[in-house]
Amino acid sequence: MSETIGTTCVQGGWRPGDGDPRQVPIYQNTTWKYGTSEAMGRLFDLEDSGYFYTRLANPTCDAVAAKIAELEGGTAAMLTSSGQAANFLAVLNLAGAGDHIVSSASIYGGTYNLLAHTLRRMGVECTFVDPDCTDEDLEAAFRPNTKLVFGEAIANPALTVLDIERFAVAAHAHGVPLIVDNTFPTPVLCRPLEWGADIVTHSTTKYMDGHGATVGGVIVDGGCFDWQAHADRFPGLTEPDESYHGVVYAERFGQGGAFITKATAQLMRDLGCCQSPQNAFLLNMGLESLHLRMARHAANGLAVAEFLRDHPRVAWVRHPSLPGDAEYGRAAKYLPDGSCGVVSFGVAGGREAAEAVMARLRLAQIATHVADARTCVLHPAASTHRQMTDEELAAAGIGPDLVRLSCGIEDAADLIADLDQALAGE
Ligand SMILES: *Cc1c(COP(=O)(O)O)cnc(C)c1O
Residue ranges under compositional bias (Polar residues) (predicted)? Predict the structure, then answer.
């Protein structure tokens, strides 16, 4: 389909026939009925496709996943219970005990914990690289047992912009795919698959839902990575799965279907972190206005960043689309229509001054959340990232004075007036 992204936001994924509901209906059921055990057996063997249990597939979730796959330009997608689950399953689908992965160091705190600690306990080692590292340093991070490269399109909360093309080229030179968490830009503002990424993940909890209503995630496969060409490295995709009567995913489901079918048939079956149909319905409501909201979030973020840049009580401000920002060049390349509504800044006077300003804000409210229609604000070093050492914080680009402001879709003038009174007040 050659429709534009806004149209896909509204109508993608669910294309009803005559007499079907016009809106995506909520299939609020766990199970489906079949006439014979044999018919059901064929579904279990992946011989026929059809629904039988909502943990593995549900029409509401499938319609919403299909919309997101269309938005990203991918071949298949799977919804998950959260963004954490999406990144966990995306990595686990390729790497197991004894394997190694490479990740940008500038990533979300929860994902850092997952890669640095929890996956390590499961036998998967991660080497973190500075997103601005030299080509030699990036090269040196790879090992013979490396299975994938991971990064965030715009890192939460450091707001670094991943050089997707460079990381994709390095990954492919080592015969492994690049996974990009595209939560902050959303496919409205950046489509990593077009720049060489192979798999895209999201915390749909953020802009995709956009209203702070549901926690969720999604994995999208671009269908471009040739698993068979690197069969030795990815036996999970290219050798028989004994837990599924010897199915070989890459053979049976092809390059476009293997990754998501394996993630669903094996990992979702065993780990069970599925999204509920009710939450998928709410997520879809958010997706229907994603293109409108992202334009406003990005414009508000830039307007607020410009105001903060010129304010005497602000020590520094970062927004990828702010001229002069360290990330501006990469943002102009990868995010030409705007980046996101998130702005980070430091208040002159450090940690305590920052906390005082935050307490005086009225429209922007303190919340462990980001990328919501309502403006919210957070002090990462005191909350989401408090388990990290000072060195780890520095590597992730987060200072103790960093305030993360997530501009909603209110009027920019009101957000600026709120900041103005909070910065002025004693
Ligand atoms: C929030 C977030 C996550 C985790 O998502 P949850 O839905 O909270 O589990 C992962 N990656 C990024 C970039 C995020 O912002």
Answer: 1-10
Indicate if ligand 1 lies below 6 Å from the C-beta of 111.
yes
- For residue 1, pLDDT over 50 is answered with no
**Is the N-terminal amide bond of 380 cis, ω within 30° of 0?**
no
* Test site for ligand 1: of 106, 205, 219, 297, most ligand atoms within 8 A of the Cβ: 205
Mean pLDDT, residues 334-351 = 94
Q: At what angle do helices 350-360 and 412-424 cross, to 10 degrees?
A: 130
Atom of ligand 1 nearest to the CA of 84: 9
Q: Taking the complete model, does pTM exceed 0.85, yes or no?
A: yes
Domains of the chain: 13-285 (3.40.640.10), 291-424 (3.90.1150.10)
- What Å distances lie between residue 50 and 54, 150, 267, 275, CA to CA? 11, 33, 18, 18
Tell me how far the alpha carbon of residue 70 lies from the centroid of ligand 1, in angstroms.
Answer: 21
On the CB side of 46, CA atoms within 13 Å amount to 20
Report pLDDT for 2: 65
Q: Where are the alpha helices (DSSP H) in 73-160?
A: 83-92, 109-113, 119-121, 135-140
What CA–CA distance (Å, rounded) separates 151 from 188?
19
Our answer on whether the CB atom of 201 is closer than 6 Å to any ligand 1 atom is no
